[in-house]
Specification:
By secondary structure, the protein is of the alpha/beta class. It folds into 3 domains: about 5-125 and about 320-349, Nucleotidyltransferase, domain 5 (2-Layer Sandwich); about 135-180 and about 270-315, ATPase, nucleotide binding domain (Nucleotidyltransferase, domain 5, 2-Layer Sandwich), CATH 3.30.420.40; about 185-265, conserved archaeal protein q6m145 (Nucleotidyltransferase, domain 5, 2-Layer Sandwich), CATH 3.30.420.190. About 35% of the residues lie in helices and about 20% in strands. The strands form 3 sheets. Strands 3-2-1-4-5-6 form a 6-stranded mixed β-sheet. β11 and β12 form a beta hairpin. α1 runs parallel beside α2 (about 75-85), α3 crosses α10 (about 335-349) and α6 (about 210-215) crosses α7 (about 235-245).
């Protein structure tokens, strides 16, 4: 019997899944927009949409960050609800939860130990890279729609200091900034415009997706989140949203001026990433190093590597692909799910 291995990453805004063949080649990569804060029915719909496209005879590995959304009274309640919803669609007998203790059969997992699996998707990525790069020093940066993870790995051992979201925020290994959902007002207090520093309005008028639409670098397949005003995802509509942050309309300036404003936003985000990157590099061995890029925002990382004068490679280089693997999403867009599928395959073989 041919078996497949599916890695699931249940986030608060997206559901991601990666399917591997028994020999390890990637068969499919899925990502569904899933605004979990709107209710569990949204999760169920997204899970079903992916599940109906899966092959038969699958083993499933599960990680999550969605337990943090304010739909739940606590993270423990969130973990329990996500696992219950998952098992209503996918049999628990072939499902394993990834935790700080490794893989645990879902039927044996005690929700009282929620802290072992809550928001641990970063750990499986770091664990996977440690298996792949046993003789190298790497820093993986996973820039998603909402957050950025910094994952240092030294000769097979991941050197992350934080164990949970709270610790990782303190250590700078988790940064709440991405390339889509992050409100523009979080990026900076003010922006340069016509020779002056203009304070930004403290309103959710625009997000980082608007910046990267104006610069025409945001992948269309990654642009899944509704806009701040619920209107179009065009370049012109994004310019209008950026203008609103300065108390203006798009017609108040030229297209080139708005492009320069967007370039200033990109530069601020790049500088923030660079500084955080230098913080982590300062505690790693001073030897040849590689920056590994993951997430839908990794289009920023070749420039970051150039500034830091270190080698760059895409997370996807660690995988091979079946001839039938097609679609917009890359395994690098869904690094924890891809790493989870690979590590589950190794665990069960």
């Amino acid at each position: 019997m041919i078996h497949y291995y599916v890695g699931w990453d249940l986030g608060g805004a997206h559901i991601k899944a990666v399917v591997l063949q028994a020999e390890g080649k990637v068969v499919s990569v899925f990502q569904q927009y899933c605004p979990l804060w709107q209710g569990m029915a949204v999760l169920s719909k997204s899970l079903k949409a992916i599940h109906r496209q899966l092959p038969e005879n699958c083993f499933h590995g599960l990680t999550m960050t969605g337990e943090m959304v304010d739909l739940f009274e606590s993270r423990q309640e969130g973990v329990r609800a996500l696992l219950n919803s998952f098992t209503q669609i996918i049999p628990s007998r072939n499902t394993f939860v990834y935790s700080t203790q490794g893989f645990i059969p879902l039927s044996n997992f005690d929700p009282k130990n929620y802290h072992q699996t809550a928001s641990q998707n970063w750990r499986i990525t770091a664990h996977f890279l440690g298996q792949c790069q046993k003789n190298d020093v790497i820093l993986c940066i996973d820039i998603g729609s909402t957050t950025t993870d910094f994952l240092p790995v030294v000769k097979g051992d991941f050197k992350c200091l934080g164990e949970d979201d709270h610790d990782r925020l303190k250590t700078g290994e988790l940064v709440y900034a991405g390339v889509v959902r992050t409100p523009l007002m979080v990026l900076s207090d003010c922006l340069p415009f016509r020779g002056q520093q203009i304070p930004l309005m403290a309103e959710y008028f625009a997000n980082m997706a608007d910046v990267y639409r104006v610069l025409q670098v945001l992948p269309i397949h990654a642009d899944l989140t509704p806009t701040a005003d619920g209107k179009a995802k065009t370049r012109l509509a994004s310019i209008q949203r950026l203008a609103r942050m300065l108390g203006l309309d798009a017609a108040c300036a030229s297209e080139r001026e708005w492009q320069m404003l967007a370039m200033a936003c990109r530069e601020i985000q790049l500088q923030q990433l660079t500084y955080t990157c230098l913080r982590h590099l300062s505690r790693l061995p001073a030897e040849q190093m590689t920056l590994v890029g993951a997430g839908v925002g990794r289009f920023l990382l070749p420039e970051l590597a150039r500034r830091l004068e270190i080698d760059y490679q895409d997370f996807a280089v660690y995988f091979q692909f079946s001839e039938t693997c097609h679609g917009d999403f890359s395994v690098a867009d869904c690094a924890p799910a891809a790493a989870l599928a690979w590590m589950l395959r190794d665990f069960l073989r």
